[in-house]
Specification:
The complex is a heterodimer. By secondary structure, chain A is mostly beta strands. About 5% of the residues of chain A have low confidence. Chain B is α+β, with helices and mostly antiparallel strands. Chain B has six helices and ten strands; from the N terminus they run αββββααβαβαββββα. In chain B, helix 1 crosses helix 2 and helix 2 crosses helix 6. The longest helix of chain B is centred in the N-terminal third of the chain and has 17 residues. Classes of the chains: A mainly beta, B alpha+beta.
Chain lengths: ~450, ~220
């Protein structure tokens, strides 16, 4: 209705519109952004190239802490606001189900947030008033519709959402697949991760992240582990040799249009987050392997064939620093890497993606997981929780969102929210939003 | 003044469309899969609603969404963003041209451009916007539609999932810019949405292959 009202008002003004104004100011805005704040779907609109106003944190509820429920926490991130650095809103959802990642719809009006344990997907309206997200839909039919469990990555396609699963309802292992829902939350299709031999490498059927290069018609996927592993206490898990073998060791290049796997790459050690270079015409993506602590490059060779190769080491792999989240700069010249176990944030010079160089290292917490940067790279946000049963215990179990300023040389603290002190829970994935223009 | 202004926009718009590549449009750096080698699942159903044709006659929207394979986009006639409406227009022109090379397929397809600003885009304006494309060729029609009211329009937009907002200036006053993410909808003959293209993936070659894929599904030979 707002559109009706505004366009009616505008009609009056249009009568006074001059030819000059018409020639210079008539713009319709489409999906102008090649990508969003460096890690979102290239199909998403409303890129925030300036100052973000809010950071939304998908938070794992902790029994006995506050209301104990999982919740979407909204924090004011605009330095000009009187509430800068403060929690300004929370939306609790029913119970606890291992909140993990989130993704905006193509029009950035809705934020989809998944839970890895009960496989529920919560849809929040963040377009109407991003300062006060509102739960508008809960999708509970993923296991029934697809047989998959653990909705992990939410990646906008035009009019729909591509969801990467982590596990399956049959044996609760790592064999899984992708589902597509339309923006109304209706199931559209499912696609199994490959288990056959394609290009000389046998698929393990595992899944974790996915990312698309539209100009190349390529969808890349990575691989992690099943629900029996990721919902198990980490201390117990690492002592179970058989269970530790059940981690993904592959990436897959798909034909996006047909949603058919074209090539499987052997990438040992659980390749996790995938980030495409955002430069127009670029033909490479990068990922980090959690268990082997390496950076891997996926790139077209001179013949146009996609290849994957190890290009750098992250910390000392023998100490298992556990690289978790990565964040690529908008110009693709730098990459942030968080290593969970040693609580370290590292910056790699990606000027030559064939040979990344670690140029900056800072301890940013007792445990650090997600890392997100603004489009201009001047602000970096870090959260602490990996998985409820993988987080550290006792005094090392810090739970926070920490905001930093980055001047190209050093991270300087900007503000911090202590999620335990605020009785919120474990801070996991972050997404930015901005007040509507005008 | 209004028609003069409109003429200026149409002129610049035509100049854009005349180029081989719309400025800022994505380049296709791949060979798309062949028609019929993949499937296009039903994404959503199309709504009904009320529209006006370019002669001002009222019709049910279903007249333009059922019975043929349909390529539909939401536009406004004075939009000049190269990767917005002009890109859709340019793509439609190319798809139309390619389909006309195959009269046996062309008559099974229709093109629809539906305005998102009925306060400006009257049937008369849509007719002017359509120009030479108003007349069907080899059974292939390109329909330039508007709606009888904002209420009728918003019902259709909401049902399709087309986000639209009027841009406001620094004082909060509405401007002439309409923010809308370009979406082009491919519908099967039953009105099911089978593909949605944004400017990131709006390649005529892909659209043609998708149309042929739907025709193959209907048992039509496309080779």
């Amino acid at each position: 209705m707002a559109y009706q009202r505004v366009i009616a008002q505008r009609r009056v003004r249009m009568r006074r519109t001059t030819l000059v104004l018409l020639a210079t100011a008539t713009l319709c805005w489409a999906a102008a952004a090649r990508a969003d704040e460096t890690c979102n779907s290239p199909y998403m609109t409303k890129l925030i190239k300036g100052q973000e106003d809010y950071v939304h944190v998908w938070t794992i509820g902790v029994e006995g802490l506050g209301d104990g429920s999982d919740k979407l926490v909204t924090i004011d991130a605009n330095p000009k606001s009187k509430q800068y650095g403060k929690v300004i809103h929370t939306v609790a959802v029913t119970g606890r189900g291992e909140p993990h990642h989130m993704g905006f719809t193509d029009d950035r009006r809705y934020l989809w947030a998944g839970r890895l344990d009960d496989s529920k997907i919560f849809v929040f309206d963040v377009g109407t008033n991003p300062a006060q997200p509102k739960l508008v839909r809960t999708i509970s039919d993923l296991p029934q519709r697809s047989g998959y469990l653990g909705p992990h990555t939410f990646y906008a396609l035009p009019g729909r959402m591509l969801v990467q699963g982590l596990s399956n309802a049959n044996d609760r292992g790592g064999v899984t697949g992708m589902t597509v829902y339309n923006n109304k939350g209706e199931f559209v299709a499912k696609y199994d991760m490959p288990t056959a031999d394609i290009g000389g490498v046998k698929g393990d059927g595992y899944g974790y992240d996915l990312a698309i290069n539209p100009a190349k018609n390529v969808l890349l996927t990575s691989s992690f582990t099943g629900i029996d592993n990721y919902m198990r206490d980490l201390g117990d898990l690492v002592k179970d040799g058989a269970a530790m073998k059940r981690f993904g060791n592959t990436m897959v290049a798909w034909d996006l249009k047909s949603m058919k796997p074209q090539k499987i790459f052997a990438v040992p050690g659980a390749p996790l987050e995938i980030r495409w270079s955002l430069k127009p015409g670029a033909n490479w993506a990068i990922t980090a392997t959690a268990l082997t602590s390496k950076l891997w490059l996926v790139k077209q060779d001179s013949g146009g064939v996609w290849q994957a190769k190890e290009v750098a080491t992250i910390g000392d792999p023998a100490k298992i620093p556990l690289p978790v989240d990565i964040s690529i700069t908008a110009d693709a010249k730098g990459l942030w890497v968080n290593t969970f176990m040693d609580g370290t944030t590292r910056y790699f010079d990606l000027s030559n993606p064939e040979a990344p160089r670690e140029t900056y290292t800072k301890n940013t917490g007792k445990q650090v997981n997600m890392i997100s940067q603004s489009w201009d790279g001047k602000r970096v946000y870090i959260t602490s929780s990996l998985l409820a049963r993988w987080d550290k215990k006792g005094a090392d179990d810090e739970q926070f969102l920490r905001a930093f300023k980055w001047d190209g040389k050093a991270l300087t603290p900007a503000f911090e929210v202590d999620f335990y002190k605020e009785k919120l829970g474990r801070a996991h994935h972050m997404k930015f939003s901005a007040k509507p223009a005008g | 003044m209004r028609l003069l202004a409109f003429a200026l926009v149409v002129w610049s718009f035509a100049a854009l469309a005349a180029n081989d590549q719309v400025p800022g449009a994505p380049r296709m750096e791949f060979v798309p899969p062949a028609p019929g080698t993949y499937t296009l699942p039903v994404i959503q159903r199309t709504p009904n609603g009320k529209v006006l044709d370019s002669s001002g006659f009222a019709h049910a929207l279903s007249r333009y969404t059922i019975g043929r394979i349909t390529l539909l986009s939401f536009i406004y006639t004075y939009c000049t963003d190269p990767v917005g409406c002009p890109l859709a227009y340019d793509t439609f022109v190319t798809v139309r041209s390619r389909l006309l090379e195959r009269p046996d397929l062309a008559w099974r397809v229709r093109l629809v451009s539906l305005s998102i600003d009925p306060t400006h885009d009257t049937p008369q304006m849509m007719r002017a916007y359509a120009g030479k494309y108003l007349e069907a060729d080899k059974g292939l029609g390109w329909h330039f539609l508007t709606t009888p009211s904002m209420k009728a329009l918003t019902y259709i937009l909401d049902a399709f999932g087309q986000d639209v907002a009027v841009e406001v200036d620094e004082r909060g006053r509405p401007t002439r810019a309409i923010n809308h993410m370009l979406k082009v909808f491919l519908l099967d003959q039953h009105g099911g949405v089978r593909e949605i293209y944004s400017s990131e993936f709006l390649f005529p070659e892909v659209v043609l292959n998708d149309i042929k894929t739907l025709l193959i599904e209907e048992g039509v030979r496309v080779d």
